[in-house]
């Protein structure tokens, strides 16, 4: 995937081959605190097991949601983050909504060998078939999402 590729996930109503009955969706809110990263990872791992999506996809989802929640906690001044996992048409989409106020969205960067951070979106990019971000329609905040393919291997 090219850096900065920000496709917007296709809406359920726009995909005539996917019925609403075929879509699994789960949302949860967390405090925008560092300890919430582990809770988000646990939710993702448990949910993918419950949905029978396989260990590889479950591990990828746990890592991706961990990175997205970490970014929301570290880079925004909000008090809550909302997370959503949805599975349809062979893809698992992980989305995190923050209460951010920044003028720019997430970007891929090249971290130096000694840097402690700066690699999270590189991991998201490597594990995803698509990812992106957009501002919330009303109010402040941003939604960052990643679509994982059920058959994707890295």
Total count of helical runs of at least 4 residues: 3
How much of the sequence is in beta strands? 15-25%
State the total count of DSSP E strands.
Answer: 5
Residue runs with pLDDT of under 50 for 5 or more positions: 1-20
Radius of gyration: 15 Å
Distance between the termini: 12 Å
- Structural class by helix and strand composition: alpha+beta
Percent in helix = 25-40%
For the largest beta-sheet, the strand count, sense and barrel status come to: 5 strands, antiparallel
Walkthrough of the structure:
The chain is α+β, with helices and mostly antiparallel strands and 154 residues long. The chain has helices spanning 36-50, 55-75, 120-127; strands at 24-31, 80-88, 91-97, 130-135, 142-149. It has a five-stranded antiparallel beta sheet, with helices on one face. A hairpin with a 2-residue loop joins strand 2 (80-88) and strand 3. The model is unreliable at 1-20 (pLDDT under 50).
Write the layout of secondary structure elements.
Elements: E1 24-31, H1 36-50, H2 55-75, E2 80-88, E3 91-97, H3 120-127, E4 130-135, E5 142-149
Antiparallel strand pairs: 1-2, 2-3, 3-5, 4-5
Helix pairs in contact: 1-2, 2-3
């Amino acid at each position: 995937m090219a850096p900065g590729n920000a496709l917007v996930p296709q809406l359920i109503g726009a995909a005539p081959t996917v019925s609403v009955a075929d879509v699994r969706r789960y949302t949860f809110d967390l405090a925008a605190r560092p300890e919430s990263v582990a809770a988000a990872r646990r939710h993702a791992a448990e949910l993918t097991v419950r949905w029978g999506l396989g260990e590889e996809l479950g591990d990828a989802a746990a890592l991706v949601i961990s990175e997205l929640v970490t970014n929301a906690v570290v880079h925004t001044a909000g008090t809550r983050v909302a997370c959503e996992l949805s599975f349809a048409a062979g893809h698992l989409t992980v989305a995190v909504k923050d209460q951010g106020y920044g003028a720019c969205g997430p970007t891929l960067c090249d971290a130096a060998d000694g840097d402690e951070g700066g690699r999270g979106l590189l991991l998201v990019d490597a594990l995803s078939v698509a990812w992106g971000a957009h501002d919330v329609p009303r109010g402040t905040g941003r939604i960052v999402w990643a679509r994982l393919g059920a058959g994707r291997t890295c």
